[in-house]
């Protein structure tokens, strides 16, 4: 029997440390993926997500050949690994790195896209699959499954588009795509969890209201928890000033409090995604100004690094999982049936996305019609926003595994078919739509015009001098009639320019009451962030 020293050492190491080999291999592939992504940085067609998926697919093929067709996996999918360890750094970094000035100025638009849009998309996808799947011969799904499918495929992945857009050149567009992408993911997960709590055996006319009420409860409490943790962290850092003795401590307290916010949300059965996102926004808005300059710079790089590793890890796994023949063999659908079902899902994604992006954009432009300061969402912007949300990614994969598998394994043919079709849709939308994203953006926003999309902030607000932004909402030093007249003017302005007015008074409140307590530069010397 031909048994060399290499095989002996491999089997000995695998017996003593069964997880060492797969983890080592996966880390090596991660490094390879980073190198290839760097070499393809200037490519017109390929981005980090596509690179990770392709490298994962190639790695899965090699592993499949080495295992003689038994498995393409290096690591087995684990919901706990994804939701507890990989997702928090991605979402927190999204909140921490967000351009807060643009995010808060477009807050209502972002929330309408990310919340109302998810509801519209979920309804269209759920009812569309319920109507069309049986016509394709795909049966066996329950009402809960159809609603879950709606939430699974309403979750977007805007990474491809964000890697092409530039915050400085297209600040409005970048803010809308970025903000909506994060809020969309959080809303999809919250709505998915709300669907799991429906008792379908006792469905009546109040069920929809209960689902909506449950959603509002999860959404509001998760948001408030994230805000509370962010404010507590900011207050502690401002009061105790850890930087006097150790910059390491202040950076550590930020990391631990961020992760604690996510775990508290999971402990109380809330949405950890929403909590950790708003925790990141609040920490960036207040806490980052209460630490030393070195800690501020280091924190941004550390959070970005952790997020990047987690995202690459997830897309690598998607690439390797695409070659898991066990699911394909278990599936109740043939190759043609799978293509038909995945095509229906993709078509419904296109329709569901368009059903809210264009109408809500028109509504936003209408609400901002009297505000010279606000930029309108042009039709080209609307097309890019629509296209940016067509890709499906890590959250869709995780929710599909959570709904249709147990620890990544399923023996039910119908559930296996849904998992495989989710993988097909994620791969197709990420690769095909992702490849076409850069040419589309360059066509719609050529270099000579894209630089002109960010000039909205340079206009001076008519009728609102700069010093007025620092005045308190109500002054006890002024007469009641003065305060009453100010309130009447505010209500009139709110009716004429609702979006701008809300943002303007938030800035007043923030600068007058919040920053002195929780930290941050005052309005008069605040840089754009």
UniProtKB/TrEMBL annotation:
GO cellular component annotations of the record: membrane
Q: Does the keyword Transmembrane apply?
A: yes
Q: Which UniProt keywords apply?
A: Antiport, Ion transport, Membrane, Potassium, Potassium transport, Sodium, Sodium transport, Transmembrane, Transmembrane helix, Transport
InterPro entries, alphabetically? Cation/H_exchanger_CPA1, Cation/H_exchanger_TM, Na+/solute_symporter_sf, NaH_exchanger
Molecular function via GO: antiporter activity
Species of origin? Cardamine amara subsp. amara
- The principal localisation class reads membrane
Q: Which reaction does it catalyse?
A: Na(+)(in) + H(+)(out) = Na(+)(out) + H(+)(in); K(+)(in) + H(+)(out) = K(+)(out) + H(+)(in)
Localization = Membrane
Q: Which family does it belong to?
A: Belongs to the monovalent cation:proton antiporter 1 (CPA1) transporter (TC 2.A.36) family.
What protein does this entry describe? Sodium/hydrogen exchanger
Fetch the PANTHER family from UniProt.
Answer: SODIUM/HYDROGEN EXCHANGER, SODIUM_HYDROGEN EXCHANGER 4
The chain positions of domain Cation/H+ exchanger transmembrane read: 30-442
Q: What is the lineage of its organism?
A: Eukaryota, Viridiplantae, Streptophyta, Embryophyta, Tracheophyta
The family database entries (Gene3D superfamilies) matched by this protein are listed as: 1.20.1530.20
Transmembrane residue ranges: 20-40, 52-70, 82-98, 110-133, 215-237, 271-289, 301-319, 339-363, 384-404, 416-436
Q: How does the record say this protein sits in the membrane? A: Multi-pass membrane protein
Sections of the chain in a coiled coil:
none
Q: Which BP terms does GO give this entry?
A: potassium ion transport; sodium ion transport
